[in-house]
Task: inverse folding
């Protein structure tokens, strides 16, 4: 065996190891999700019996019925939809307007105000949550969905994201439209807004990912069960059931994931863009 | 505007005619109107609260009786409070472990996926590694709690098949910390992975071809060429991941309630308990201010160290 053949053999071994690692990681990534789905389809009495049935032989949908009897899951679902949709719509409006202004309009103090926006991105939620809790209480909004929605209607990060997008659009288009007599708002709404649709989609998906899954603020702000969002509802279900009917809890978990999976299937591109869009490039 | 300035003889600061001045003022008013909603929301729900938190941290307040000024008492108290000090040690330990694993695993998977020639194979792995991010951290903590259950969990079942004894995943301090790290990394590594894949695939092709012509092997190419070129992304990922990991709450709150003992009680959990369960709003604010200071300090250190290894072309 000469040296060349040896390197070729080595390369093959290395490549095989590489593929092996990728497949192993895929199994680890997907395994817990598969276990969750397949166990949610087993009878409650069998849900903790090992070995797990990775592919359920006789899938039972009874857990999916039971979970609606155990907790007001439909109500939680509606609550989560209300919170998530209103925050998305709110941020699409506020962040698009402010992002456009910071990118395209000259006004006194623009640089300083934008720097202030950027600085607030460093502030962790924990360091503002106590006063926000007090503000919400003073407004009489304790234990309501509004307590989650109103403080989240604006976003420094969303503004930054939209500004970056508007900055790379050609300025000449707006100047030409101004020459033709368009008002400033018309330049924004008729010329640039439609060009920003991909950025709007990315912002919407980013907000969906964070607020559909949010646990910390609901845990603090919501007390009565009828106001719970899905993550809070699932955790409360687990607490009240103990280990008795794991499969019922898991049915609830799977149901909360379905909207994310459906959205991901149709808009994967914007999920991935949401990650890279934030990386200041 | 700049064009008309040039037409007026290229003066450094052209005098505006009244008409232009009025126009510019109108443009300014429009700008303020456009940022109005965002700015108002950020003032009310971020800037005022952070100032209020700082102020509140010098008071003792149970939200019922009027607040009482106590000076720096809250800060002196927390420095001597074992629960608080311990929570910072716990949080730091978990966060460093989580971030290191995210970076190493995210990078390894990104490099290996980039080597696949067929784009559908790359897309398939990317989709699978992203899937855990689609579960909420709350939902993931619930099902991972079952999977790592000491007596009935599927992990210990398979370990037993290999002849290994049951591991007290959630009922021993080391086990609980390790489980929380694993669950957090399992769920979030896709984020880092996607960032690194994007950075690797945007590397200039001519540079890589030149390196290949020079006969550099894959390992050498990675450490001497690719890694320096994507170091800004690595830096970004380490800053963002560390800030997130230092605020770890959902997984320990749901899976271990901070136990056994206080072995997995993070600082965010202490803030939650202090403020919203014990109604010590002043003391809670003081702890949250220290957490904020720690985050700023850690990010500052990262930026300082970055000068030595981050390469900006």
Result:
């Amino acid at each position: 065996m000469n040296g060349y053949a040896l390197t070729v053999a080595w390369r093959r071994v290395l490549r095989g190891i590489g593929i092996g690692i990728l497949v192993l990681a895929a199994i680890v990534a997907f395994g817990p999700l598969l276990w969750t789905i397949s166990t949610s389809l087993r009878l409650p009495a069998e849900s903790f019996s090992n070995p797990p049935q990775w592919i359920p032989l006789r899938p039972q949908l009874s857990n999916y019925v039971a979970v609606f009897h155990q907790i007001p899951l439909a109500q939680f679902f509606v609550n989560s939809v209300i919170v998530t949709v209103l925050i998305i719509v709110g941020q699409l409006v506020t962040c698009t307007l402010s992002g456009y202004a910071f990118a395209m309009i000259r006004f006194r103090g623009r640089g300083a105000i934008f720097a202030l926006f950027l600085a607030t991105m460093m502030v962790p939620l924990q360091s503002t949550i106590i006063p926000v809790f007090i503000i919400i209480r003073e407004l009489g909004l304790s234990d309501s969905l509004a307590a989650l929605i109103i403080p989240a209607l604006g976003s420094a990060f969303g503004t930054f994201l939209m500004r970056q997008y508007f900055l790379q659009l050609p300025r000449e288009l707006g100047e030409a439209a101004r020459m033709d007599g368009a008002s400033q708002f018309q330049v924004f709404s008729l010329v640039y807004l439609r060009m920003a649709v991909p950025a709007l989609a990315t912002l919407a998906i980013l907000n969906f990912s964070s607020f559909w899954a949010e646990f910390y603020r609901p845990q603090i702000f919501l007390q009565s069960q009828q106001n719970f969002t899905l993550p809070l509802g699932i955790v409360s279900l687990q607490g009240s059931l103990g280990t008795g009917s794991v499969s019922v809890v898991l049915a609830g978990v799977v149901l909360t994931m379905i909207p994310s999976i459906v959205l991901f299937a149709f808009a994967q591109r914007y999920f991935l863009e949401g990650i890279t869009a934030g990386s200041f490039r | 505007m700049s064009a008309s300035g040039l037409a007026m003889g290229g003066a450094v600061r052209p005098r505006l005619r009244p008409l232009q001045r009025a126009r510019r003022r109108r443009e300014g008013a429009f700008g303020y109107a456009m940022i109005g909603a965002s700015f108002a929301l950020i003032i009310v729900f971020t800037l005022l609260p952070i100032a209020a938190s700082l102020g509140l941290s010098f008071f003792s307040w149970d939200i019922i009786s009027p607040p009482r000024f106590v000076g720096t008492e809250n800060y002196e108290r927390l420095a001597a409070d074992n629960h608080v000090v311990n929570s910072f040690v716990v949080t730091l330990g978990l966060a460093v472990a989580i971030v290191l694993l995210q970076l190493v695993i995210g990078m390894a998977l990104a490099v290996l996926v980039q080597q696949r020639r067929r784009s559908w194979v790359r897309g398939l792995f990317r989709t699978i590694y992203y899937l855990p991010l689609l579960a909420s951290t709350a939902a993931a903590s619930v099902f991972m709690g079952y999977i790592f259950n000491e007596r009935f969990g599927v992990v210990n079942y398979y370990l037993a098949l290999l002849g290994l004894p049951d591991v007290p995943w959630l009922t021993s301090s080391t086990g609980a910390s390790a489980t929380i790290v694993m669950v957090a990394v399992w769920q979030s590594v896709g984020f880092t992975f996607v960032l690194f894949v994007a950075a690797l695939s945007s590397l200039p092709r001519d540079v890589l071809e030149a390196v290949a012509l020079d006969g550099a092997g894959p390992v050498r190419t990675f450490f001497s060429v690719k890694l320096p070129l994507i170091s800004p992304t690595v830096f970004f990922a380490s800053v963002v991941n560390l800030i997130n990991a230092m605020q770890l709450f959902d997984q320990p709150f749901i899976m271990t309630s901070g136990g056994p003992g206080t072995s997995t009680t993070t600082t965010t959990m202490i803030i939650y308990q202090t403020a919203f369960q014990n109604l010590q709003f002043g003391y809670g604010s003081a702890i949250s201010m220290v957490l904020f200071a720690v985050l700023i300090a850690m990010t500052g250190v990262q930026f300082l160290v970055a000068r030595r290894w981050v390469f900006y072309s």
Chain A touches chain B through 95 residues (CB under 8 Å). Chain A has two domains: 3-64, 71-241. Chain A is about 70% helix and 0% strand.
